[in-house]
Design brief:
The structure holds 3 protein chains of 3 kinds. Chain A is of the alpha+beta class. Chain A contains 13 helices and 17 strands. In chain A, a hairpin with a 2-residue loop joins strand 5 and strand 6 (104-110). The radius of gyration of chain A is 27 Å and the shape is globular. By secondary structure, chain B is of the alpha/beta class. In chain B, the strands form 4 sheets. In chain B, strands 4-3-5-2-6-7-1-8 form an 8-stranded parallel β-sheet. In chain B, strands 16-15-17-18-12-19 form a 6-stranded parallel β-sheet. In chain B, helix 2 (35-48) packs across helix 3, helix 5 packs across helix 6 and helix 7 packs antiparallel against helix 15 (410-421). Chain C starts with a helix and ends with a helix. By secondary structure, chain C is of the alpha/beta class. Chain C has 2 domains: 2-55 and 247-363, no CATH class; 60-245, no CATH class. In chain C, helix 7 (181-204) links the parallel strand 6 (163-169) and strand 7 (215-221). In chain C, strands 1-2-5-6-7-8 form a 6-stranded mixed β-sheet, sandwiched between helices. Chains in contact: A-B, A-C, B-C. The interface between A and B is large, with 35 and 36 residues.
């Protein structure tokens, strides 16, 4: 944790409310997000007990499995969830735009994409497991399920996999999105409790964040945001209700279970919309829009794949698939880190504290300076910046600057409070710098040793050419190998 | 009794004999056990068969080092070096290899050397033989990109050093036999459990004072010995000392091979100014005293280039550099000191001044790299209190199914090194 | 009377089960916890009496599920388990005897049941036939701070040829070869307790303790079904930690010797077992031994809420987590750190550096925040 984030937490303790860790919003926020709060039966991997979902804060849909151990009821739940989610996903595929590319065919991209917001990490994991338990099911043959169930499974799997890409906003955990922007006066562990986190950021009138957070720990006041339920609730309310349903299978008994879980879900439903409202108070960072474009491309691609009738996603990545995904994730992480710092002086502050970035005032420039002779002569303007930041950069280090994205400079020398740089890229062609490309004396500037420049990785072998060092070619993938009768009991 | 040299030579012979018999051969090489010597010998051996050979190293520096040694040992073997377009050819390899960015530019040399990253772009032909150097430092996804280029390979590396890492969460691949975050050797052996694994048994770098300590702490199941005896290496100063704590620490290190320069116990920030200062002063003082080494290589002065300072974090390295270190002394992180060798090292203990240890600070490979770079002596700078920190360390590591357990445990390794250092402790003088 | 007994008061020491022993490593730096554990104090009851009941509960659904899964695995003399062991260990196990060591008739003491287990294990270690034997509910014992702790017999010991394996049955799912890492870790730590106890028992009986495998057999439901699957888990790291913590417990005397002689955590229960000790007095007693609170305690220690409140009242930076404490270079309180940050407090010796860093952070925060 950076000293800045630590200081922010200390201030939160002192003032009793959460402190800002960001000046802009680093995640995309959809105009019509889908809030999804799943509950799971304790002791089971992915047996849904209930869920609340919807895009309208005033009209949540409540889904209930009155006997979560009943396989048919579980698949009925999945089909009902598909009824809510699939139209949401499909509706967003209708409007597209044409994206022109240099050196490649233009392609169509959806102008918007789904955004599913769940309470926390646990719910993200549940989405992944629910996707895994439904995507291999079949609409015909033994153990047939509603045709929408395997489709839902593939969408949920897609969302859960996207959530592993740093900076993606298709599936967001509310606690993580909030923690990215605010520091509370408690530990990161306690921040995983949505009610307590929101309590710190936005305490009710007359309460401090600290007292709101403490109150939020009482499961009777604020039921857990799931997917795990409160063991006390399970013992005293849920178990008798499910037992009654088991005995009578009556609508009345089912309604009793529904009322029980509603009492657990409704407070979280309201919290989720408060969390979304809080995120909405921050202006969007430019990088968030750029990353959302990547999300939209990914969404468009997956929708097409689904329409073409491709097979469900495999259970685990093969050797080639794993290496290729790792490369994409690493690239996403590096550009996410760099973009956030360049978008937000508060994020940049952490780098300034460690000496990897600095802010200061330009005291001298040589905008027309060149290096080399004859045809090798290049424009290399010099800029000297005075800073009181503790700069720890070696000469030769490549730097970027939020004021002039796309420009690159190199550290020439550091002498006390004076840092001399030469601009090596992005100042214009020819022997004179583009007007405005070289900062002028007196300008406040920031430079950082961070780059979101991306070097494409070398190609990987085709999966069927997996070398002997990695187990050789895998057996041909056939979803038929995944037994549809694999129980979900 | 057989001599260490004969023992080591027998292993090398066995490796060379295994090469034609197996698709892959692995050689574990503890610090300074003659890994480069083996690579150069094996390269000569394979080149002599007349079949072309590719050599894969991890960094440009390693590639250049190998070319220098190959040219020295096998002047008759033609060498090619594949490089990136912006690669600046260093003086030391000029004239020793044909250099180009593409294979056809190289002519048709007997041996082609390049980094793994560069090889990944060189398609178009397959090679009957490959040597993969520093294979434990190489992530398996890199191997995946180049394994199609060769038919058989010799994998050489040090299993005790730092594992490859990533900046992203790689849990989704945990337990897979082809987990891209595992080292190239780990993945290779998991798919080919029958491949022979040899071990070089003698460290030629580490002195008799260090080999047993490093061997027990970091290679508990695959020990090694020093190639030289207790009296074979000496370090002495030609300029007298002043009985300061710094001098006494340096004298202890010269006399015994180790010194622990211990600052008073205190929890500090990572760039602990006092510790940073002590490291810088020790390096300066060391060179002021004009040290001379006596070894199997004869008598040699210790030049700044033969001294290194190691730390865990980059900001510590920057702080040490800013504190003023004699010109020519290397200051770097453990990651970047891997595979390098010096006469004397001064290291800032990764746990110094901390209140809690993280997995990063406890990683055995980190301390192993720092404590095994020297031919003569190692001075460790640390705050008192590390034993208490280790004692209070909570053990809450999570466990993934089907992921082989990694040895040695960082806690145990740290404890073992500290136990040894406690016999070489010099208390820092109280600040004036 | 032993000093530890006096600290606990006139009630029998709370038995250490494998879970409690495994938890010894959760926060070894905490003297409070070490003393309470060594004395066998009921921390749960202590926390409740102090007004800070522990936040741990288990859902009846989880308990039912766990029991159902275990009986499925053990059905018909562990038939299913045997099938798994054959597959996993790759051994032809023609026949396997099943012995329930819990089945000793009547309701004998733990000691009696333990000696029964010992006797059978001794015999098993002498037999060298090829048939396998499953020993269900073995009652094993481990020495902790001078006391014998009898471990709840919820594992199966499996002997084949000369080797013993500990089999642990857990009801969390293994999906496509992966399970939740913290659950696997907890299972591995608990299994290590049994492995060590079994090793010690064999050693006491004059057998080679290395005959107990450090690879335990973890049996869990596979994917989303009830079908069990077995995985080998190497518990050598957990064994090393456990040995360290047990050795540490034996040294708790050094802390205890420093405590005032009249100190006791006696809850003074009445005839119905209801504590009558004045709460304020108990609070003072508990506060008489230093705690080292960390947020991780919230999932591992019954006293967590009490210690958290104490840390909060002291304004301790421990409250914010180890990472924050570490970033602050050891500054112990929030007030001190904030004072250094805004310059109102002159840094003490050794604080110059963190003060400089905090002031810079404060300046940057004011500049851009």
């Amino acid at each position: 944790m950076s000293t800045l984030a630590a200081l922010a937490r200390l201030r939160a303790v002192h003032t009793g409310t959460a402190q800002r860790l960001a000046t802009v919003r680093h995640c995309h926020l959809s105009e019509r997000p889908m809030v999804f709060i799943p509950l799971r039966l304790a002791g089971e991997a992915a047996a849904p007990l209930a869920a609340m979902a919807g895009t309208d804060p005033g009209h949540p849909r409540l889904l209930v499995v009155p006997q979560p151990r009943d396989r048919d009821l579980r698949f009925a739940f999945a089909a009902e969830l598909a009824e809510i989610l699939l139209p949401y996903f499909e509706g967003l595929q209708k409007a597209t735009e044409t994206v022109e590319r240099r050196g490649a065919e233009p392609y169509e991209r959806c102008v918007d994409a789904p955004q599913v917001i769940v309470p926390g990490r646990g719910a993200v994991a549940f989405v992944q497991l629910l996707g895994r338990s439904t995507r291999f099911r079949r609409a015909e043959g033994p153990y047939a399920v509603h045709p929408s169930v395997p489709v839902l499974g593939r969408w949920l799997t897609f969302l859960a996999q996207r959530a592993q890409y740093p900076g993606s906003s298709l599936l967001l955990a509310a606690t993580e999105a909030l923690s990215l922007h605010w520091a509370t006066g408690q530990s990161t562990l306690e921040d995983a409790n949505l009610a307590s986190l929101v309590g710190w950021i936005d305490p009710p009138p007359g309460m401090t964040g600290a007292s709101a957070a403490r109150e939020a720990e009482d499961p009777l006041v604020w039921p857990p945001a799931g997917p795990a339920t409160d063991p006390g609730f399970d013992t005293e309310v849920l178990a008798p209700a499910i037992r009654a349903y088991e005995e009578t299978r009556s609508d009345r008994a089912a309604a009793r279970v529904a009322e029980a879980v509603r009492s657990q879900l409704e407070p979280t439903w309201r919290l989720m919309w408060r969390a979304i409202g809080l995120l909405g108070t921050l202006p969007a960072a430019p990088g968030a829009a750029a990353r959302w474009e990547g999300d939209r491309t990914s969404f468009t691609g997956f929708a097409a794949q689904l329409a073409e009738g491709g097979p469900p996603q495999p259970k685990r990545d093969g050797a080639v698939g794993a290496a290729s995904r790792l490369a994409r994730m690493e690239r996403a992480q590096a550009s996410y880190d760099a973009q956030r710092a360049y978008d937000d002086p508060l994020v940049m502050a952490a780098y300034r504290l460690t000496g990897e970035a600095f802010t200061g005032t330009v005291v001298a420039t040589e905008p027309d300076r060149t290096e080399g002779e004859g045809r090798g002569r290049k424009l290399r303007p010099l800029v000297t910046v005075r800073t009181t930041d503790p700069v720890r950069l070696a000469p030769g280090t490549r730097l970027g600057t939020p004021e002039r994205r796309g420009q690159q400079a190199e550290v020439v020398a550091i002498d006390g409070e004076h840092v001399t740089l030469k601009i090596v890229k992005g100042m214009g062609r020819g022997m004179a710098a583009t007007p405005g490309a070289v900062p002028e004396a007196g300008e406040r500037v920031c430079y950082a040793a961070l780059t979101d420049e991306f070097q494409p990785p070398a190609s990987l072998p085709a999966p069927e050419e997996t070398p002997w060092t990695h187990g050789g070619p895998p057996p041909e993938y056939s979803p038929a190998d995944d037994e549809p009768e694999e129980e979900w009991s | 009794m057989i001599s260490p040299a004969a023992e080591a030579s027998a292993v090398v012979d066995a490796v060379l004999a295994d090469l034609p018999r197996h698709r892959g051969v692995v050689v574990d090489s503890p610090p300074g056990a003659g890994k480069s010597t083996l690579v150069v010998r094996a390269a000569g051996h394979l080149a002599a068969t007349g079949e072309p050979l590719m050599i894969i190293a991890q960094t440009n520096e390693q590639v250049d080092d190998l070319i220098v040694r190959l040219a020295e040992e096998h002047p008759g073997v033609s060498i090619g070096r594949l490089s990136a377009a912006d690669y600046a050819v260093p003086q030391r390899i000029m004239g020793k290899a044909s250099i180009g960015t593409k294979l056809p530019d190289l002519g048709d040399p007997a041996v082609v050397v390049a980094t793994a990253d560069k090889w990944a772009w060189a398609g178009g032909r397959t090679w009957p033989w490959a040597i993969v150097d520093e294979a434990y430092q190489m992530r398996s996804d890199k191997l995946l990109r180049i394994a199609g280029l060769f038919e058989r390979a010799l994998f050489v590396g040090d299993p005790g050093q730092l594992d490859p890492f990533t900046i992203v969460d790689g849990d989704r691949w945990a337990g897979l036999s082809w987990d891209p975050l595992q080292s190239a050797v780990a993945v290779l052996l998991r798919h080919n459990p029958g491949l022979p694994v040899h071990r070089l048994p003698v460290s030629w770098r580490l002195p008799a004072s260090a080999a047993p300590v490093v061997s027990e702490a970091f290679y508990p199941f695959t020990g090694f010995t020093a190639g030289t005896g207790p009296g074979d290496r000496r370090l002495s100063f030609t300029v007298g000392g002043m009985r300061t704590a710094y001098d006494r620490a340096l004298e202890e290190a010269a006399a015994t091979g180790w010194a622990l320069y211990e600052l008073p116990s205190r929890h500090t920030v990572r760039t602990d100014a006092e510790a940073v200062q002590a490291v810088a002063v020790l390096a300066t003082r060391l060179l002021q005293r004009a040290p001379v080494t006596f070894s199997e290589r004869g008598e040699r002065p210790v030049t700044p280039g033969r001294v290194a300072i190691g730390a865990a974090h980059r900001d510590q390295v920057a702080a040490i550099q800013a504190a003023g270190v004699p010109d020519g002394v290397t200051v770097d992180t453990a990651n970047r000191l891997q595979g390098r060798e010096y006469d004397v090292t001064i290291i800032l203990h990764p746990l110094s001044g901390r209140r809690d240890a993280t997995a990063f600070h406890l990683e055995s490979g980190r301390l192993c790299v720092l404590a095994s770079r020297h031919r003569h002596a190692c001075v460790v700078v640390a705050r008192a209190g590390i034993p208490e920190l280790l004692d209070a360390h909570p053990s809450a590591e999570t466990v993934q199914l089907n992921v082989p357990v990694k040895f040695p445990d960082g806690w145990e390794a740290n404890q073992a090194v500290l136990a040894h250092l406690s016999g070489h402790r010099i208390e820092a003088a109280p600040p004036r | 009377m032993d000093r530890l007994d006096r600290l606990r008061g006139p009630v029998p020491p709370r038995p250490h089960d494998a879970r409690a022993i495994a938890a010894l490593a959760a926060n070894p730096g905490c003297a409070r916890r070490a003393v309470l554990d060594a004395a066998g104090v009921d921390k749960d009851a202590t926390a409740a009496h102090l007004g800070y009941p522990a936040p741990f509960g288990q859902s009846p659904f989880a308990i039912t599920r766990g029991n159902a899964f275990e009986s499925l695995v053990k059905e018909s003399g562990c038939a299913e388990l045997l099938r798994l062991l054959r597959e996993l260990l790759g051994l032809p196990i023609p026949l396997a005897a099943y012995t329930d060591l819990g089945d000793v008739g009547g309701n004998p003491s733990a000691q009696v049941r333990h000696s029964h287990t010992r006797k059978l294990l001794d015999k098993a270690a002498r037999d060298s036939d090829d048939a396998g034997t499953l020993y269900d509910h073995p009652l094993l014992r481990l020495e902790i701070a001078g006391h014998s702790a009898y471990l709840e017999p919820d594992v199966v010991a499996f002997r084949l040829g000369g080797r013993f394996h500990i089999v642990e049955i857990k009801s969390f799912a293994v999906v496509d070869g992966q399970a939740e890492p913290d659950k696997v870790a907890a299972a591995a730590r608990q299994a290590a307790v049994y492995v060590l106890a079994l090793m010690n028992t064999l050693e006491e009986l004059g057998h080679d303790p290395r005959r107990v495998s450090h690879e335990v057999v973890l049996v869990c439901p596979e994917n989303f079904a009830n079908r069990p699957a077995a995985t080998l888990v190497d518990v050598r790291p957990q064994l090393a930690v456990l040995r360290r913590q047990l050795a540490r417990m034996a040294r708790v005397g050094a802390i205890v010797d420093e405590l005032p002689p009249e100190l006791t955590f006696d809850l003074a229960p009445d005839a119905d077992g209801v504590p009558t000790r004045p709460v304020a007095e108990l609070r003072e007693a508990v506060r008489g031994v230093d705690a080292r609170y960390a947020p991780d305690c919230l999932s591992t220690c019954d006293l967590c809420f009490f210690c958290r409140d104490e840390a909060s009242a002291e304004g301790s930076t421990d409250l914010l987590g180890r990472q924050v404490r570490d970033a602050l270079g050891g500054v112990a309180t929030v007030t001190e750190a904030l004072g250094l940050a805004d310059g109102s407090l002159t840094p003490g010796e050794g604080q110059e550096e963190i003060a400089r860093l905090l002031r810079l952070a404060d300046r940057i925060y004011a500049e851009v925040g």
